[in-house]
Design goal:
The chain has helices at about 40-45, 55-65, 70-80; strands at about 5, 10-15, 30-35, 50-55, 80-85, 90, 105-110. By secondary structure, it is α+β, with helices and mostly antiparallel strands. The chain has a domain at about 30-110: Ubiquitin-like (UB roll), CATH 3.10.20. Strands 4-3-7-5-6 form a five-stranded mixed sheet. It holds the Pfam family ThiS. InterPro entries: Beta-grasp_dom_sf, Mopterin_synth/thiamin_S_b, ThiS/MoaD-like.
């Protein structure tokens, strides 16, 4: 845990995110958080993680596709992935309906062999 602070004589534990999240700036498309890529998605993206600034999962993934347009495998791998948003499975929900939160995390999980 991070440091603690006192409030009216009660110790309150605070935590620091592993990667500090900058607040959304005026004019930004939405909340700011982190996209984490795993296995083949990580290889296709060429990075383990990157920030998002988007209101929905669809917006975040569209921006990621544009960022990685020079990596031809990225869009192909992304199309086969499943997603967790703040540890909750997205499943078959329309990505345009999946809201993202300030400081949230999107996990990009390609299909795994063996279960």
């Amino acid at each position: 845990m991070g440091g603690g602070r006192r409030r009216k004589g009660v110790a309150v534990a605070t935590t620091q995110p592993a990667h500090p999240v900058k607040p959304a700036l005026p004019g930004q498309p939405g909340p700011v958080g982190t996209i984490r890529y795993w296995a083949a998605a990580k290889a296709a993206a060429g990075t383990a993680e990157e920030p998002y600034a988007a209101r929905t999962l669809a917006e975040a993934l569209d921006a990621a596709r544009r960022r990685h347009a020079e990596r031809p495998d990225f869009a192909r791998v992304l199309a086969r992935c499943s997603f967790l948003v703040d540890d909750a499975p997205v499943g078959t929900r329309d990505h345009a309906t999946v809201q993202l939160a300030e400081g949230g995390t999107v996990e990009v999980l390609p299909p795994f062999a063996g279960g």
